[in-house]
Write a structure and sequence with these properties.
The complex is a heterodimer.
Chain A lengths: L5 H19 L4 H6 L12 H29 L7 E9 L4 E7 L1 H20 L7 H20 L3 H10 L1 H11 L4 H30 L4 H4 L5 H7 L3 H18 L8 H8 L2 H26 L1 H27 L4 H20 L4 H32 L10 H4 L1 H14 L6 H15 L4 H26 L17 H19 L2 H11 L26
Antiparallel strand pairs in A: 1-2
Chain B lengths: L6 H7 L1 H15 L1 H6 L5 H20 L6 E3 L4 E3 L1 H27 L5 H19 L3 H19 L6 H32 L4 H9 L6 H17 L8 H8 L2 H25 L4 H24 L4 H28 L4 H33 L14 H4 L1 H14 L6 H15 L3 H26 L14 H19 L5 H4 L4
Antiparallel strand pairs in B: 1-2
Helix pairs in contact in B: 2-4, 2-6, 4-5, 4-6, 5-6, 5-12, 5-15, 6-7, 6-12, 7-8, 7-12, 8-10, 8-11, 10-12, 11-12, 11-14, 12-14, 12-15, 13-14, 13-19, 14-15, 14-18, 14-19, 15-17, 15-18, 15-20, 17-19, 17-20, 18-19, 18-20
Classes of the chains: A mainly alpha, B mainly alpha.
């Protein structure tokens, strides 16, 4: 039973958990009216115990989901093609089915989602405001994101894609910082505007080929895919543009990135982690799952534009990050820069570049997630994110400084950390590719230097030097719970850094599968890469 | 098509209407005891019973009611009729449930209100059944006169009076135009029967400007009733002034009935599409743009929902255009079916969403002052979390965000538009829905994000309205995920 429906169980377990939360902890009108600011001993019920129970319940649900995804990783067969496929009739009038399945591209993203969700919920134990709603929205968000990565039907994909916006909108809007309302609306409208045209494109594709079966459409050389290629190039270009726009906004690529700093800065810590760690990857995933396999000619034709935008994003994000006075905004802009690398890898049309892009997607989730957690820890202690409010913290909070050091080094792609592996693969791929080539790669590599500039400078101003502010002297160091959240991330930073091979095995067969990189790019046979020694073809 | 149908069978076909009329008469006869009853809600219960009886008759007809021509071809039953009538009856039930507490608090929970509601509803159903322009006109008048009076039912309220008068004057003007149009059609073709007009059109025996002008006037009359821009001017004022339960009723029922006729005409007079398709396209674009853009500026929720109703009428016009376009371009039959079932599905979705939204306002109003503005909803998530999140679901659905019924409806309209090769309209619909998302989300953020002090929950929330909120919000989500549950109803259209 469970083995047949493992993916469905995985996708909907958090949602069921959220509904159970609503059912098990009905609203206590009195407690709800007064909320967190009321004295915990005043009411007849025990708000404190209730809140703890809610937190624990949510944590257990997310852990169970994570456990399921571990089963998934263990049972995943290292080969190309979709696995754990499930299909059921869903919308007969459109011929749409409920089809889910994963392959080498999505399996790691699924694992990343469940992993970061556990950490986000674990970190959020300090949230006191409307705790039940908070956990419900986090769990719904997890379900929706898992749905995006698993859906193998165009309409199902779109439903999950848009559904992700709703819980995130509430998370930013209710639990965010000062300008949360503005940021929530901007986030929603920006991404919604990007996606509505995709709906028109999506309906057009389904009308053209007569099927919404993504599991076939996304396989180059399949009957449906060939049928799609047979339509006039101009119509396909318009449809491709509608998809690409939606994914570009989500990634976000350079001219469409303006929603990101606002959303990331105003979101609560867990929201920022999920946003940066998982939601941006939905855009990358869209390119790899839909744009490239379904519209290879169009993607090839537009690759010049995308590579230019990616490289501009790398440099621009890094330069803007360097001058931010706000730590969280700095990390947010660094995401723009890092996602530029990812897109460079995708549009290099080489196996190595795409593998690097996927790896870097995971890495960025780990390292930026960690940075957001740490900035959140600092904010919890001082209620400010201004860099100038800190200085010399390594004397008062050594553990926090250590974790920040690791996150920072991973973010600047130091060898032996995960960031290096992904970034190196991307740059090597783009160097060898016919679409990007040495010149663009050289410019992109400058971004790596810039990232060292803004990150090291940030570390220096916040943690190094003498303890400049008196109020930072008594700052408490990381609690056990916070350490428990951060340690798994540190483990991953080094695991990916020194022994990435087991992870690459998951994605390699899918990415190097015949014809995924169909346009006549340089076929990459094998390029030695530190930590990827086992990957021989 | 059975022509030799006997009189009793013809009458049996309109049992659903008769049930409503009998209910109305009973309410009038029992008016005195009902007024003296100590507990309010007796009249509403009787009206609800009449609606249930009507629905039972409709269901009992089953497949037999799907292929009927009665009263000399002026009334007929087909799947479109059956599904529209079902939707109308469901709306009627929700409207009845919203009324008692609200009206009782103002001292107007009179049986007459329900008499008007039932006759109005029967007029709407008559429009869905009509195969003759004269019967369409009868239905419109029956529908409208009830609405005119209901809009001013709370007599002391000056705004209600204004709404009633404005609605009446403009409505009468539109009716007159429509009647004139019917006369022109009759004068040029010699018939008002839609089937007869259809065959005349097919034989190309009528091509005169008089005929086209007459149809244009009919179209304008219907556009007025459906509040399609630029004939929507009455709706914000009428919605704002009318009592909440009346606003809920008229915003939904009038639109559904008018669109039932529009869909029927678009389907029947298919060969004419070359002439009137540009007009339908223009109305669709105008409605979508005007409705959504002006709604952004509204602080009053009733006005906002009025403009959003204009916008939704525009979406429905896209489906009508797609229907016409697929006829004109000789597309496959399934395309036309998709356009029709898409439009009907959207009507149902619109009915649930809009009824639900007004139910939330009625629920929050309780026995107090009417909850009308955005400010009235501030911090609702703390006072009444269930109602606030119900409203959030309804707003997201109106905005067409998955997984809601509003999205499924919009998807079907997109589908029909793309299939009918109306790509321009599809793109326009996509773009304006971003504008729409802005003002719907503003309601959500006012309720959920903004905090007020520890304001006590308003006392005496009406339970029936609460149920309407719960049912509509649940339906919006469940049908948004599994619209297949409805396909029994919608799939049989055509």
């Amino acid at each position: 039973m469970l083995t047949d429906h493992l993916l469905s169980a995985l996708i909907f377990l958090p949602l069921v958990g959220a509904l159970a939360l609503l059912a098990l902890f009905p609203a206590a009108p009195e407690a709800a009216a007064h909320g967190a600011e009321s004295d915990p001993h005043a009411g007849p019920s025990m708000p404190g115990g209730r809140a703890a129970a809610i937190r624990l319940f949510a944590l257990v649900v997310s852990l169970a989901t994570f456990a399921l995804s571990c089963v998934l990783l263990a049972r995943f067969q290292m080969k190309a093609g979709y696995q754990f496929l499930e299909s059921a009739d869903w919308l007969p009038m459109f011929g749409a089915k409920y089809t889910v399945g994963i392959d080498g591209i999505s399996v790691l993203l699924v694992a990343l989602t469940t992993f970061l969700s556990v950490l986000a919920i674990g970190y959020s134990f300090t949230v006191t405001k409307r705790i039940k709603e908070y956990m419900v929205f986090l769990l719904i968000l997890e379900s929706a994101m898992l749905g995006v990565f698993c859906a193998l039907d165009l309409i199902l994909f779109y439903v999950f894609w848009e559904a992700v916006l709703i819980p995130m909108y509430f998370l930013i809007g209710i639990w965010g910082h000062e300008r949360r309302t503005y940021a929530a609306v901007k986030f929603f409208l920006y991404t919604f505007a990007g996606s509505v045209l995709m709906l028109v494109g999506l309906v057009a594709v389904i009308r053209l080929v007569g099927s919404s079966d993504l599991s076939a459409l996304s396989i180059p050389g399949s009957e449906l895919n060939d049928k799609l290629q047979g339509f006039p190039a101009q119509s396909l270009m318009w449809i491709y543009a509608s998809f690409a726009l939606a994914f570009m906004v989500k990634v976000p690529m350079f001219p469409f990135h303006t929603w990101l700093p606002d959303a990331h800065v105003e979101a609560p810590t867990a929201g920022s982690v999920i946003l940066a760690g998982v939601m941006l990857k939905m855009g990358v995933y869209g390119f790899m799952r839909i744009c490239l396999p379904m519209f290879p000619q169009q993607a090839m034709q537009s690759s010049g534009l995308f590579i230019a935008l990616a490289v501009i994003g790398i440099i621009y994000g890094a330069v803007v990050a360097a001058v931010q006075p706000d730590m969280k905004k700095l990390v947010a802009y660094s995401s723009v820069s890092h996602l530029g690398y990812v897109m460079l890898g995708v549009f290099s049309f080489t196996h190595l570049g795409m593998m690097g892009a996927l790896l870097q997607s995971i890495n960025h989730g780990v390292s930026t997630g960690m940075l957001f957690f740490l900035v959140g820890c600092l904010y919890d202690r001082r209620h400010t994110r201004e860099i100038t409010a800190f200085g010399g913290l390594k004397r008062s909070v050594p553990a926090l400084s250590f974790f920040f050091l690791v996150a920072m080094l991973s973010s600047v792609a130091l060898p032996l950390t995960n960031g290096f592996v992904g970034e190196f693969a991307i740059l090597q791929g783009s160097y060898l590719s016919k679409t990007a080539g040495p010149v663009w790669t050289a410019v992109a590599a400058v971004g790596a230097i810039l990232s060292a500039v803004y990150m090291l400078w940030l570390f220096q101003r916040v943690f190094a030097g003498p303890l400049s502010k008196e109020e930072n002297r008594a700052m408490p160091d990381l609690s056990l719970r916070e350490k428990l959240v951060l340690v798994p991330l540190v483990v991953l930073v080094f695991w990916f850094g020194v022994a990435v091979t087991p992870w690459v095995r998951y994605m390699e067969p899918t990415i190097t599968a015949p014809k995924l990189v169909r346009p006549k790019a340089a076929p990459i046979e094998y390029i030695a890469l530190p930590g990827m020694d086992g990957v021989r073809r | 098509m059975r022509r030799d149908i006997d009189v009793m069978a013809e009458i049996a076909f309109i049992y659903p209407l008769i049930a409503l009329w009998v209910g109305a008469c009973l309410l009038l006869l029992l008016a005195r005891p009902l007024r003296r009853a100590t507990r309010p809600g007796g009249s509403a219960a009787l009206a609800g019973a009449a609606l249930l009886a009507s629905l039972a008759f409709l269901v009992r007809q089953g497949n037999e009611g799907l292929n009927v021509i009665a009263f000399g071809g002026s009334i007929a039953g087909d799947p479109l009729t059956a599904s529209i009538c079902t939707i109308l009856l469901l709306c009627g039930m929700m409207a009845v449930a919203l009324a008692p507490t609200y009206l009782a608090a103002r001292g107007y929970d009179n049986p007459e209100y329900y008499v008007l509601l039932l006759t109005s509803l029967s007029g709407a159903m008559l429009m869905a059944m009509a195969r003759d322009l004269v019967v369409v006109f009868l239905g419109i008048e029956l529908l409208s006169f009830g609405l005119y009076i209901m809009a001013g039912f709370v007599r002391e309220d000056a705004r209600g009076g204004e709404a009633s008068l404005k609605y009446f004057l403009l409505g009468a003007f539109a009716s007159a135009l429509m009647l004139y149009g019917i006369v022109l059609v009759y004068g040029s073709s010699g018939s008002t029967n839609i089937e007869a007009l259809r065959s005349a059109v097919i034989k190309e025996s009528v091509q005169s400007a008089m005929f086209a002008g007459g149809l244009a006037l009919v179209l304008i009359g219907l556009a007025f009733k459906a509040a399609v821009a630029p004939f929507h001017q009455w709706s914000p004022d009428a919605y704002e002034g009318a009592p909440l339960p009346v606003t809920a009723f008229m915003s939904v029922v009038a639109k559904i009935a008018a669109f039932a006729v529009l869909i029927r005409l678009a389907d029947s007079l298919a060969p004419l599409h070359a002439t009137w398709l540009p007009a339908v396209r223009l109305l669709a674009i105008l409605s979508m743009v005007v409705g959504n853009v002006v709604a952004v500026a509204q602080q009053n929720l009733k006005r906002m929902l009025a403009y959003s109703g204009v916008a939704h009428a525009g979406y429905l016009m896209v489906a009508v255009a797609a229907l016409g376009s697929s006829h004109a371009k000789g597309a496959a039959l399934d395309t036309q079916t998709l356009a029709m079932s898409g439009a009907v599905f959207y009507l149902l979705a619109y009915a649930i969403m809009t009824m639900g939204a007004f139910a939330v306002l009625t629920y929050v109003t309780g026995t107090g002052a009417e909850c009308q503005t955005l400010a009235d909803l501030k911090g609702l998530a703390r006072r009444r979390p269930a109602a606030a999140y119900g409203m959030a679901a309804l707003m997201l659905s109106l905005g067409g965000v998955p997984p809601t019924i509003g999205f499924m409806g919009k998807l079907q309209i997109f589908w029909a538009a793309v299939a009918g090769r109306e790509m321009g309209l599809a793109v326009a619909l996509a773009l304006v829905s971003v504008v729409a998302a802005y003002y719907y989300l503003r309601v959500v953020l006012t309720m959920c994000f903004e905090e007020t002090g520890a304001e006590p929950a308003t006392a005496g929330a009406p339970r029936a309205a609460g149920w309407v909120v719960a049912i509509s919000a649940t339906a919006v989500l469940v049908l948004g995920v599994m619209p297949g549950l409805l396909m029994g109803l919608i799939g049989m259209v055509r």
